[in-house]
Design goal:
465 residues; alpha+beta; Rossmann fold; 2 domains; 7-stranded antiparallel β-sheet; 6-stranded antiparallel β-sheet; 17 helices; globular
Length: 465
């Protein structure tokens, strides 16, 4: 599908009772599966050892009851991945487990580093050997190098050298550590169970494992969890808060809360604002499922035009592979989405989606709707045009492949074959999220990056584009 993809989700749990931590981590990863479907892994501390299992595919493809039974211990972390930096292969699956003179570290990372290329070159010059092509291994090696007997100081020394986006969970000896980058680009939350604590990318994962939400990890904050409870260290509060606005638009689950805002409500509000900004006469409002549904309901309620189901999503597709020819690509869209013909035949439609990246999928969906008898298709997008690449953990095509960067709204409308096209305004986006322009990252919409980024076009730091 023609969507941006988030790099990954992380999960960590500390419980000295050690009751089924691998199962709880498994459930937490299933709750975060939307953040990455390429690989999954779990690492767990058992005594002085860290055991782990990881593989390519969905969480339920990588793990079964037998594999989970082999992972027993009192601290566990897990990871689901979609690659943005590093190739799609098993060696790049996380968590990473690194053995060094101080013991063993297990690390899982959500985000992307903008200075990983320079750091990796320097480390390799000094004799460090890398086993993967992902930037997360740079962090793990820096922690190992900086370790002088105190893991908290080693982690802090390491993260102060990296620039970019990261939500980290780390196991070392008897500690579970969580770190959020100084801009707060990637999310991380803290929860409490009856006998322990949980770290996760989203609150939905806390709900699944029965953990009570404590609070969001703050930007530039490290949380250390051990037998004494949890301890907070703010290591960098100088950067402006810049949580990724696309978390609210598309990535996060609608039942999650992120930095005090409910995701469903922000998408619903975006739909209401969209209806005010781009009204049009029509018979029904439909959504591209699932992420377009809250905005479509908001648009319907604001406009008074009834919401109905026009597209049915196949929820059992598993991994989506790039198909080699046009005919197979067209078939793949029909496998993902099918038109409910009785609902749309002879009607004027307002089709709500969260974004348009290349425009190819939007065109195919509109063609399907017209073939099923739709009289008119008016497309409304609940975010501004995506016009710039992301360097912080989102798989964005190069700028020349972003239709919002190279074509006007009128040209995009013609490209996708819609009767009209309207995007949510930048101010509308900010209003829907409700945090103010100075608290969110909107770089993919306006190029206002919260830090210097590699402008040479080398987005994938260890491989040629």
């Amino acid at each position: 599908m023609d969507k941006l993809k988030e790099e990954c989700g992380v999960f960590g749990i500390y419980d000295q009772d050690g009751m089924n931590l691998s199962n709880l981590t498994y459930f937490g990863l299933v709750a975060l599966q939307h953040r990455g479907q390429e690989s999954a892994g779990i690492a767990i501390r058992s005594g002085n050892a860290i055991n782990y299992h990881k593989g390519m595919g969905l969480v339920q493809e990588v793990f079964d009851a037998h594999k989970l039974m082999g992972l027993d211990g009192d601290i566990a972390i897990g990871h689901v991945r979609y690659s943005t930096t590093g190739q799609s292969q098993l060696s790049n699956a996380q968590p990473l487990v690194v053995r060094f003179r101080g013991g063993s570290i297990a690390l899982a990372h959500n985000g992307n580093l903008v200075n990983a290329y320079e750091l990796r070159n320097e480390l390799e010059k000094n004799g460090t050997i890398f086993q993967t092509s992902i930037d997360s291994e740079v962090i793990a090696n820096l922690i190992a190098i900086e370790y002088k007997g105190n893991i908290k100081e080693a982690v802090l020394s390491a993260v102060k050298q990296v620039k970019g986006a990261y939500g980290l969970v780390v196991i070392f000896n008897d500690k579970l550590i969580g770190v959020r980058d100084p801009n707060g680009l990637r999310p991380l939350v803290l929860g409490k169970t009856k006998t322990g604590y949980v770290l996760a990318s989203e609150t939905a994962a806390l709900d699944v494992v029965g953990a009570e939400f404590v609070r969001d990890i703050q930007k530039g904050e490290m949380i250390t969890i051990d037998e004494n409870g949890w301890e907070s260290i703010i290591f960098d509060d100088t950067k402006r808060k810049s949580i990724c606005s696309f978390e609210y638009v598309y990535f996060a689950r609608p039942d999650s809360n992120m930095d005090g805002q409910n995701i469903y409500k922000t998408r619903y509000k975006a739909g209401k604002i969209l209806a005010k900004e781009h009204p049009v006469e029509a018979d029904i409002v439909i959504a591209v499922p699932d992420s377009g549904i809250p905005a479509a309901i908001g648009y319907s309620n604001e406009s008074g035009i009834p919401y109905d189901v026009g597209l049915i999503k196949n929820k059992y597709m598993g991994r989506t592979f790039i198909q080699p020819d046009q005919e197979t690509r067209e078939l793949a869209v029909k496998l993902k989405l099918n038109v409910l013909k009785d609902n749309i035949d002879g009607k004027r439609l307002i089709l709500i989606d969260d974004s348009i990246v290349r425009g190819t999928t939007s065109r195919r969906i509109i063609n399907m709707l017209r073939e099923a008898g739709a009289k008119e298709v008016h497309v409304r997008i609940s975010s501004p045009p995506v016009s710039h690449s992301c360097y912080f953990g989102i798989d964005t095509p190069s700028k020349k492949q972003l239709v919002g960067a190279v074509k006007s709204v009128e040209e995009i409308c013609e490209l996708i074959g819609a009767d009209s096209l309207g995007y949510l305004s930048y101010d509308g986006l900010v209003e829907s999220i409700g945090k103010g322009k100075d608290k969110i990252c909107t770089a993919c919409f306006n190029g206002d990056y919260p830090m210097p980024v590699p402008m040479s076009g080398k987005k994938y730091v260890f491989e040629k584009m």
